[in-house]
Structures are given as C-alpha cells and as structure tokens.
C-alpha cells in the first residue's frame, strides 16, 4: 500500500507539519504533495550536510549553492522553478508558525527555461487548409467559419468557444472578445471570414433563450472547446495531412501579420498580450529571407559581381 507523504516517516517535523498543512488546509493532490516532499527532503539533506541546525540558519547564499548544485546535476529550469516555489511556500509557512524570521528564497530566481517557438503554418499551407472544402452542408459551413475566424482574428480557443451572436458586427467587420484577465478587445474580421460566417448563419440551428452562441451543435447547444479541438484536428488531417491545434492558427495569424507589417505593438494589441515580451516570440523570421534583406540593405554586405 502506498504511503502518503505525512506517513513517510520524515525526520524533520517542520516538513511534516508543512505537508499536513498542504493536505488538510489547501487540499493539494497526492501527486503534488509527493513533489513538495521530494523537493524539501533534498533541501533538508543539503542543510544537514552543511551542519545547519535549523531552518533559520539557511540563508540566501546557501540556497544559491543548493540551486546551482541541482542545476549541475541536470535539473531542468522548469523543475528548478518548481523547487524554488516549494521552498518559498515552505518558508512562508515557517514564518506564519514563528519558526523562521526570514524567507531566503523570496528574491531568488531560477534560470529561465528556453522558450520554444510556437508551431505555425506557412502562408501556402494556411491557404491550402482554408481553401479546401468538402460537401456544402451545415457542418462544413460551421467548421469553415470557425477556421476562417480563428485565422482572421487570431482568437484563442476559449475566446472563440465563448462567442455570442451579439459579439459579432459583420457589417462593420468586427468581433468583440473577452480574453485573459476578463479584458475585452474589439478585433477586425476579414472578408473571407465574414463570408464564411454569413454562410454558416444561413443554416445555423436556432436556439431558445437570450444567449446565442455563435458555434453550436445540431441540437443548438454551444460547442465546447474540446469539441472544437477535435473538429479542427480532423480537418487538419484531411486537408493538409497533419494534426491541427486551434493555437496553430492563432500563432500563424501572429507570425504572418508580424512578417508583413513589422508592427510589434499592433500585433500585441490584436493578440491581447499584456506584456510585449510574449509577442516578441513571433519575431522569428526565415533566416534565408533575413540574409537576403541584409545583403540588399547593408552597404558593407553588398558584394561586387565576380569577374
């Protein structure tokens, strides 16, 4: 029978009390409790090896050495971030209980995890996806409208799933969405997306009540984010031979807009990013294209024709 962290015979009573607090007061899952237990036992071993009798003797410099040693032993930046988060929470608990006067992890930061570039579709593949169509039935029209609107306005999955008919103004070519932090923004809707939405509305099942979701099932119920994901995955396989996630269309929208306009602030506003550093991930450009621009523009890069 698997033992719980609080039953594991921990030598340190403060760690045991902290895990009890997490289990009883914060109701964390057994898996999360096990992660906290593992991290804090590693720290406890580090403290013991340095002959520090209590947690109050462990200072920021000791923690820096501990984090550095964990990094040298192969712990990834994300795991180090989790480790520091566990230590900060532990010391907040010790301070609350009067067991420590300080939180040595408060201002420590783990090495930044490398940011992976988002997967995008190039312009030709995007056109192949959006220009392909099957039978002209209500399901096809609905899915085509979803695909077009995702790419036209760079929506998040949750934003598209939460759209109501009142949020759309097709004559003006606008859609109002509520994004992260409950922030509302108004976005343009392109010509092809407007046409696809009009085609969908001509066959959209009616629904009782004041709320009228834009994308519904045959029964008139609002499509869930999971249902939308599955429909897009199917179209990705059928039309371009690869799995398609809703965020690939959002990423493609951002990448294509930025490559064409170079206006980072405008793309930030369109995407609803609070921090421009989030938008900067889309500034990756094809290196060959960048090299061509450099060769053409830089006065010291231009080469004379070979004789």
Give your account of this protein's structure.
The chain has helices at 13-24, 30-49, 60-72, 77-96, 123-131, 138-153, 157-161, 191-201, 225-240, 246-261, 264-271, 276-279, 287-297; strands at 168-169, 174-178, 184-188. Mean pLDDT is 83; it is low at 1-9, 285-290 and 303-307. The radius of gyration is 27 Å and the shape is elongated. It has 307 residues and is mainly α. The relative contact order is 0.08. It has a 3-stranded antiparallel beta sheet, with no helix packed on it. 52% of the residues lie in helices and 4% in strands.
Count of discrete alpha- or pi-helical segments spanning 4 or more residues: 13
What's the order of the H and E elements? HHHHHHHEEEHHHHHH
**Helix content estimate:** 40-55%
User: What class would the helix/strand composition place it in?
Assistant: mainly alpha
* Largest beta sheet: strand ordering: 1-2-3
Biggest sheet character: 3 strands, antiparallel
Strand content: under 5%
Quote the average pLDDT.
83
What kind of assembly state do the chains in view correspond to? single chain
- Strand tally, please? 3
CA(first)-CA(last) distance:
81 Å
Silhouette: elongated
What does the radius of gyration come to? Answer: 27 Å
Ranges where pLDDT stays below 50 over 5 or more residues in a row are 1-9, 285-290, 303-307
């Amino acid at each position: 029978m698997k033992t719980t962290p609080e039953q594991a015979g921990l030598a340190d009573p403060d760690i045991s009390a902290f895990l009890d607090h997490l289990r009883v007061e914060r109701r964390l899952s057994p898996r999360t409790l096990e992660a906290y237990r593992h991290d804090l036992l590693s720290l406890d071993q580090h403290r013991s090896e340095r002959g520090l009798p209590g947690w109050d003797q462990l200072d920021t410099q000791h923690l820096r050495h501990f984090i550095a040693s964990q990094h040298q032993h192969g712990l990834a930046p994300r795991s180090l971030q989790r480790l520091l988060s566990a230590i900060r929470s532990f010391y907040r608990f010790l301070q609350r209980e009067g067991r420590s006067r300080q939180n040595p992890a408060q201002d420590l930061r783990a090495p930044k995890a490398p940011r992976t570039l988002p997967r995008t579709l190039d312009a030709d593949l995007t056109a192949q996806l959006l220009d392909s169509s099957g039978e002209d039935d209500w399901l096809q029209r609905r899915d085509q409208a979803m695909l077009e609107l995702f790419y036209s306005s760079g929506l998040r999955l949750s934003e598209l799933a939460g759209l109501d008919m009142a949020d759309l103004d097709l004559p003006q070519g606008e859609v109002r969405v509520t994004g992260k932090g409950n922030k509302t923004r108004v976005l343009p809707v392109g010509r092809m997306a407007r046409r696809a939405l009009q085609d969908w509305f001509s066959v959209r099942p009616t629904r009782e009540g004041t709320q009228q979701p834009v994308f519904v099932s045959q029964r008139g119920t609002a499509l869930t984010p999971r249902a939308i994901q599955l429909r897009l995955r199917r179209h990705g396989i059928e039309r371009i031979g690869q799995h398609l996630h809703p965020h690939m269309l959002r990423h493609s929208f951002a990448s294509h807009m930025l490559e064409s306009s170079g206006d980072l602030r405008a793309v930030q506003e369109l995407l609803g990013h609070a921090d421009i550093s989030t938008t900067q991930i889309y500034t990756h450009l094809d290196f060959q294209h960048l090299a061509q621009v450099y060769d053409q523009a830089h006065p010291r890069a231009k080469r004379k024709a070979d004789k």
